[in-house]
Amino acid sequence: MPELKVSIDQNEQCIPYEGGDISRSLKDILDAEGITLPSDCGGVGKCGLCLVHIEAGECTPLSASEKTTLSGDELNRGCRLACQAKPLGDMSLSILKADNPAAWSELEADGVTGNASASNKLGLAIDLGTTQIRATLWNLDSKVRIDGITSLNPQAKFGADVLTRLAAAKASKLDADQLSLLASSAVGEAARILVSRHGLVTTAIRSISVVANTAMLALLAGKHYENLLEIEQWQKPVDCVPESIYAWQQAWGVATDAQINLVQPLAGFVGSDLLAGVLSTNLTGSEDAALLVDFGTNSEVALWDGQSLWVTSVPGGPAFEGSGLSCGVPMMEGAIYKISGHGADDSLELYVIGGAQAKGVCGSGLVDAIACLLSIKALNPIGRLAEPYAKAGFPLDETSSIRIRNHDIDLFQRAKGATGAAIVYLLEQAGLKQAALKRVCVTGAFGSGLDCRNASQIGLIPDVDSEIIELYSDSALAGCEVLLVSAGGQQRLSSLREKARLINMSLAPEFDMLFVDNLFLKPLPKSGSSTTSMLE
Ligand code: FES
């Protein structure tokens, strides 16, 4: 099979392609590998954006549109339009301007960072979230983190939540392949960006660890995703081991002997991201009762009672991630991440990531907004805005362009209701009361920006002493990093798997009642619960 040797930002990838089919342009072949070139003309040779430089090999003669679109200089330098040129055998080419469909932004480091030289072995840790992907590059020799970036999960074009994506994959093999490709391309892109920022190359990457919820792992591996739509399968183990890692090694341009470890989930509804979080927070490190809540589109909860690790997850929707809201944005530059009330005049002070013009509210900002609106009685605990805000929403910013509406609060309540139900149910199963908790670890969508007092007041987290609440920006990624660089990580993970007790909330008879109880914007019930008591 002939190969395209493709250089992007000093990194090289080999792409085998079906020879003898000259209907496929270079762009078609690159697209199929998830390497997208910019295009404004739909691939008819008019925009000139898909420019590539042919280093070696032959392709079809210049098309009429190339002769008019390319400049004399570009023609002399051996440039071609990838949408027009079709390869006629082995070729080497360099991409002059790769498209950047996912905007990657800086991921702040929690600890020490370092660098690496060309002779060092590199590792990549990936937290493949439903909404966001986070990636960090490590020097495996010194076990030091070099850099980290984050971006939105490009699979979102198939739907914001896992169920929509699973349904799309089940309905069409083509869509399933595309979902897998979108995720794997994002990993490859993250690898290329991270190494090139430090003058390194992807071939130095020797190990990659990926943690994710089960749906993300199954979609990436391209197997068993259809099972996840059947409730009775959720409690069973799901094999998400890829059939072959060769294609990824090639597409990502990593070392040919690079290890790619998709950290396997515990079951259909408990992914390796939760296990990684338990690992990095050392939740089971003592006999003290400890709770971990990983808020997200799919929120996951783990409760350690000193002997057993009770685990579950609930699909609450993307409101915690700022998605699906009329005023919502992800936790990125321009997001209102914190809001404080100003007492007597009812005005609010907004804090915006990057200090720039506010674009919308992310999850932690929404928690503060709801708590503030409750305190000034612009919102009631049932979740309805008072007049005059009921119809047009409550304006947050000076220009009144960012408004909290009933619909936004409703979505937040549904996510909170599901997560609260999971917390209360696990406590009941373990025979514990909130007061028994010695640690409450919070991670996920809110990062470390959550105001714990506000979160407790509206019942998002247990109503406990703020001293025992620990905020983690991304415990799943931190756990993934432990698995990447620590020799004992895998053993600790195996031990956690043995202690786990799976609770399938969709089969819990009390779930509906607990869900309704926890919709209300009040502190979580100390023990037991009933709708009546919440309405009092
Ligand atoms: S995509 Fe426009 S010229 Fe190739």
Automatic annotation (TrEMBL):
What domain of life? Bacteria
User: What Pfam families has UniProt attached to this entry?
Assistant: Fer2, RACo_C_ter, Raco_middle
Q: Name one GO molecular function term.
A: iron-sulfur cluster binding
Q: Which residues form the 2Fe-2S ferredoxin-type domain?
A: 2-99
Protein known as: Uncharacterized 2Fe-2 and 4Fe-4S clusters-containing protein, contains DUF4445 domain
